[in-house]
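User: Predict the complex.
Assistant: Input components as received:
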Amino acid sequence: MKQTASILSVYAADTSGACSALYELGGMSVIHDASGCNSTYTTHDEPRWYHQDSMVFLTGLTEADAILGNDEKLVGDLVQTAMELRPRFIALCGSPVPMMVGTDYDALAIEVRLKTGIPCFGIHSDGMHSYLHGASQAFLHVCEEFCETSVPRNQNTCNILGLTPLDFSTNGSVQKLRNILERNGFRVIAPLGMDCTLEEVSQMGSASVNLVVSHAGLATAQWFQERFGIPWVAGVPVGTEFSRQVLMSMQSSAQTGKCAVPCAETRHDAAQDAPLVVGEAIFAGSLAAALETETGAPVRILCPLEHDASLLRKTDSTTEDEDEIAALFTTATGVVADPLYRPVCPATVPFHPLPHEAYSGRCYRHLIPDLIGTPIAPLLAAKENVECFVLTK
Amino acid sequence: MLTRLQPNQVQPGLELRIAEAGFPAPFASTLEYNPPARGTWNIVHTGMLLPEAHQIYACAQGCLRGVILTAAEMKAMDRMSWISVKEEDLFNGTMEQNVVSGVSHILERLPRMPRAVLLYVSCLHLFTGCDMEVMLNQLRERFPDIDFTDCYMTPTMRKTIAPDPQMRRQLYSLLRPLPLDEQFVNLIGNDLPTRPSCELFTILHQAGKTIRDITLCHSYDDYLAMASSAWNLTFLPVAIPAGEELQERLGQKHLHLPLVYTIEQIQEAYRTLAQGLQINLPDLTPLTETATRRLREVAKLLKGLPVAIDASAAPRPLNLARCLLEHGFRVNTLYADDFPSCEETDFRWLQGNHPELLLRPVGNPSMRFAARGMHEPILAIGQKAAYFEQTPHFVNMTAAGSGLFGFDGLLGLADLLEDAFLHEKDIERVISHKGFGCVSCLGGCLG
């Protein structure tokens, strides 16, 4: 039955995605909410919350404010805090109740911008979409606001689009990604979302190619293509051979100006019993591509999240329904997925746990591997080495 | 609109001496910050106290995420299911039907039927005017062997009733009327069992009473038996609605014995108990002397080391501060955004006797950067005080009492203070643990 699950988890929501995307840029992200979205974000979805300061707050919405429309207090609180803390920008993120009562984030943002002189934008999140939806809006807003338009194009340079710890954790994989690119002749102008500053963002228009590493970066990549003529390549350089293919695609795109989707294009349609990789479209597709290059056998992906059809092959699946996922697992000769999917995988189907922060939060954070540039096949060879600690009975 | 400050309110972010502070909210409200201290229980932890029950949440994905991962970290995903609410559901008239169909589907797929279902709805259901009774009645007809009750994940509605007291009330809503037996006394509304060494048990046992407590129930039948107890005792302010509801619905008499720390108020609580239950009290003098002696002993050990308390550590943080000051501790900082109205007497006492005591806010945006400063040696009580002061010497306890009550509670507190002084804790590891005293996949059961 749609929208119902007996035992599976859910992915991080759009509010978390937006705050995660903006976390390191020196802005102030404010969730218009009573407390829950902010608490979930700072507890389960933000591994940087304890050690790295960032101005993420909530408005403390009450039933009276929601019903009576006390926007004056909201604007007053935003202005007062902004004037005290002087953020580089302000992002006002929505949640379910404000969505239901029709809060006009864009109008509020204009009012706050006029009163503070600080760039302000609204994120149309409502807690009913995945983190990709929120992060995607946030990345696009930042680029629209801060990218300088008259920067000269630099050869052999790139941006990384779509980075958040929700997909890449904080296990060093972003630095490794950067190293791989630089070792292969690409200077990284901005790894937007992690280890990135607004000054770097301002120069993003000078890149010769954009590397899109999650669906959260796709809309921004398309904007850069339209606005600056920068082509994009969708793929995460995991595995050894597939990493090489991604880098070749980037070189080719930088020269031809044509976009490429190695996470789907380098794969072949898979058999109906092929192994399944579950996750975000570009990351899962890249893993599947890497597995195919290393084992010779095509692999399917299951993307239960927002995606673009161009990122998938026709033998891939997109359901988010628990029953359909369970049925799909019965057809596979192996499943690579977050450990919290384990309860719906039949005992006869080998299950290979690959923790994903956007799904299981901090439960398995210490076990999330850095797969950038390293062989992937051992994932399928590995025994179940992660305790799927979800059952008490 | 800039916030108009009330008399005796200061601009948030500034500390102030209690002598100059207003009551009950010394700091003006503004945007809120959420420090990374996770020990306080949420509605999932409380619901898990009901044996053989299954929790089902109907709400938006963003709200589901927090409760599901709470259960996952508790290693209890098999006691939790969900129905997500999408945008279109709000406008197509299917909210009730989605819940009934979803719950039915979930129950039919469970490996075995639970004895009870806690059905949690969200702010969205209340705002759209969902008919909870219709949903529950349909489910009761479909599953006559399961007890259903309504629970609420409605933080937006907190000015009407906050989620915590509401959850503690609904936790006992499945108790059905039984003949009342004066022999039995329930302790209700606590997260954790009270220490067995507590003199309350001795006093009640000597009066021929038997104690029941949901934290000690092993089965749903154990829970149902609580309905036959003639008395419900509550320690926490957030448990009072549960006591009142049971008194009205089942006829169980409710007695609130506040979880307090000063000697006089503990004695007063026991006098309330004796008067209510019509039982004799033993001479409390030896207990008083032992507790006083032990607290003074630990205060001496600390040799004037400053102590900071945060409001998440005790239901009455001002009363706790007063108790410690009366016994020779050097309490110099209190972290709180506001105080419960029952604390006014202690607030005035502190203003008069320790006017230099500093108040600092907890949730103000400026506190985002507070934990990064230079810090003097200090002992903290509570996770947020430990975080802001960045001291590894802290007592890990929460406002739900942590099992401490009465004079024995003071002895327990003294032991915790001594241990905190002598031994360091890993601040990040301890305060990141969600749900004080609960099992966690992040590492054992920190209590």
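The longest strand of chain A covers residues 157-161.
Let me know if you want any component modeled separately.
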